[in-house]
Please model this.
Amino acid sequence: MIQAISLSEILKLFPDSRREGTTCFTEIRGIASLDASKPGDLSFLGNLKYRLQVKDSKASVIFLPENYTGLPHNDQLFIYMHDPSVGITEICKLIEKKHKASLNDGVHPRAFVDETAKIPPSVSVGPFSFVDENVEIGAESIIESHCHIGKNVKIGKRCRVYPGVKILAFCELMDGVVLNAGAVIGSEGFGFNQVGEAHNKIPHLGKVVIENDVEIGANACVDRARFEETRIGEMTKIDNLVQIGHNVKIGKGCLIVAQVGISGSVTMEDNVVVGGQAGFSGHIRVGKNSKIAGQAGITKNVEPGAYLKGNPAIPVQLAHRISILQRKLPELFDRFSHIEERM
Amino acid sequence: MIQAISLSEILKLFPDSRREGTTCFTEIRGIASLDASKPGDLSFLGNLKYRLQVKDSKASVIFLPENYTGLPHNDQLFIYMHDPSVGITEICKLIEKKHKASLNDGVHPRAFVDETAKIPPSVSVGPFSFVDENVEIGAESIIESHCHIGKNVKIGKRCRVYPGVKILAFCELMDGVVLNAGAVIGSEGFGFNQVGEAHNKIPHLGKVVIENDVEIGANACVDRARFEETRIGEMTKIDNLVQIGHNVKIGKGCLIVAQVGISGSVTMEDNVVVGGQAGFSGHIRVGKNSKIAGQAGITKNVEPGAYLKGNPAIPVQLAHRISILQRKLPELFDRFSHIEERM
Amino acid sequence: MIQAISLSEILKLFPDSRREGTTCFTEIRGIASLDASKPGDLSFLGNLKYRLQVKDSKASVIFLPENYTGLPHNDQLFIYMHDPSVGITEICKLIEKKHKASLNDGVHPRAFVDETAKIPPSVSVGPFSFVDENVEIGAESIIESHCHIGKNVKIGKRCRVYPGVKILAFCELMDGVVLNAGAVIGSEGFGFNQVGEAHNKIPHLGKVVIENDVEIGANACVDRARFEETRIGEMTKIDNLVQIGHNVKIGKGCLIVAQVGISGSVTMEDNVVVGGQAGFSGHIRVGKNSKIAGQAGITKNVEPGAYLKGNPAIPVQLAHRISILQRKLPELFDRFSHIEERM
Model:
């Protein structure tokens, strides 16, 4: 997605920075790591352990920490700053903003927007997207191609909804929400009444509410609640292919890595970090600031601040100790047989 | 998805029920649990352990078991019945029916239906859905937006196909099937002939058959068979993000929780229950009425009625016993060293 | 997807083969295993352990190894060949080619192709697919329905892109790539800068490059790199619902089974085989020709040729030995208590 950015735009972002050297490139063509850069690229020294790579880097512009010593090559510009990683992120945001702006074309002629939907002119709706009755979308939100925005859905300001996302009827997104491609918001919950051998469906009439600045990964699924709401708290980030069951409540600032599964009616408090492919049984409470290792299986309430691993999950230090001892089981069984023989 | 329902409609469903109190709300605005209800809501006492919540509930109408004692507040109506949970499900079905009816609009002008497709007038096809050659769809089925219904696909009566579902060529759905958003039916099987270091693709020319009243979750995938069919038996319910490999046969009335993976040519008999994220190796048989715990790894045939856990999977009671003993390994190693010293 | 194929087409593929018997079926209606075949079907003896099934098979045409002894029934044709499995694959390819040809209709009137896109006439674009600015697609590629082909995407020759695939801006497919339905290529990477309690998004401006003859499963996700590229090497096959993180490099000829998760910046060398639901921590190197068992959790570098299992992963033989000993833990604890009593 790298797009050209002019050197003058870069310099304008860091007006007071110290500089060394010059480059004939007036347009930067890409950003790359120090060792992968080619002439025309911008690079940066984000971590001092890579300092020796600066000397051999072919990048035309390099962001460096203020205490870096060393001189640019011919046709190479050094720009010094407090934190080059932050500097690069500023550049990336500028590029991303340009890219995003290019999507802001209003409603595409091949989109279908119901006449009852309320969409301000700053909203973009991509080709083949469908916006159903009574939908409300806030200013500057971007709905890309092939999205389904169901009846009575509410979408806040500055949201970004990538291609092929389905937001089913009555669900709500607050401001600044990002939904990656193919995510499904508001699928039916997996709840059945067992009557003899039949599983009779329980209708799910609730909704999903996604708070400010939440991001949800590609092809992830969030089920609607039975009556009330499934809720994802502010600033929580959810990775690709994650499953969130009906009536789940997730707190603020959680990080949930790819392919995690959270069963129905789980309550997860704030700032929980969950490693990839971990799973949670239904109806449990996961305390704030807890940390769950990848592939862990959580079947009981988790204390705030706990750090658990394994299935059944145990504190991570105990888990590591047991892992080491398990590898010694063959030896233990042998030693044990020796002792039995001598008794 | 809660939609208003009039009090008179509710009362008509329970004509002979005993009642206590009155409410000025002639329209119910939502269903909620006892403690979350607001004036205008309908609530219910489904489990006696919550009986103390009735007194403080702000719901305007409450369904109660016949033996409940206690009086309604001002502007509150109690309706007594044999099983309030069943009563609520009746109400939910009524609401769902209304919601579903609002989708029955026939073929949307922005859909594309091939002229050879056979679709009775009671079928609904949403915007941007594509129905290919020789497709047959049964009465009262709803195909929502952005669906791909491939060549020669057969869909039964009263099916519900949510937005963005892809049913690829030659696959078949019987009656009452529900496919949640983004599900893929009939993807290529993962089968290759190893020739030297190359993996040569094996074409997959079979199909998928989904029997009556099966439900399949959002973004779940069911691969087509190599020649014949992958088959999902009557009344089986499959959750979100589940993977069903080529040539798998699943029996009737199974429950398969989210993110389970079933490899190619597995045969699963009737009424098996599989916990989330469990995985099955290919070509095995899983006996009827067996139960597989979440995250279990099943690599061998499973006896009917077995209850397995872990990877490699073992009977659940043994697994629990071993889990407890594993946590005692540090202690065991210590005790063992003491003994060795004393010998 | 089985389609009729005439007997004369079959015979033309094996002109010099020895034959026995005749059939009145001039059209073959399907391919099936020996025991499931019906009159009109083609079957084959691919594995000698099924030789006894030939005698009872109702197939009208059977491919047999040259050393098979036994005679056809009435109205049954035997065709002898070196390797009947290879013979069937030839037939399947013929059928698949016909099926594929029926998709080559050029750009569907309900597709939307930007005027700057470069698409030769042999390319097919299905209904409701969107091809954005500056896209380039190579000869004979098929883009099915509901696909999103983002800005500046490059697609090689003879690719097959199934319905509902999203290829986001700037990503590249080389020749012969197959993307199954619902796959997402180029979603945002899951990378955030922790600033106090906030997770600030790191923009992902890189791309995804998919080399020749790669196949990717339904609803799988491949994240774009932060700056440079996420890359999938030639001939690698990736199954359904797999997650590939940002900046991952996967070598040539790998096989990655369903629901595997590969975290950001992993390097996987050539010819690695990964069982279903395995997971990889970020920033590790997985050596060539290594094998990872299903559900394994890989948190450290893997040596070339290693075969690992479990979480934490250990060599598969040690893992099997430990599994057996774990099941003996109850017995060991008992034996141990006896010894302690006697000391």
User: Anything to note?
Assistant: The mean pLDDT of chain A is 94. The helical segments of chain A are 7-13, 52-56, 84-101, 316-327, 329-342. Residues 200 and 258 of chain A are 31 Å apart (CA to CA).
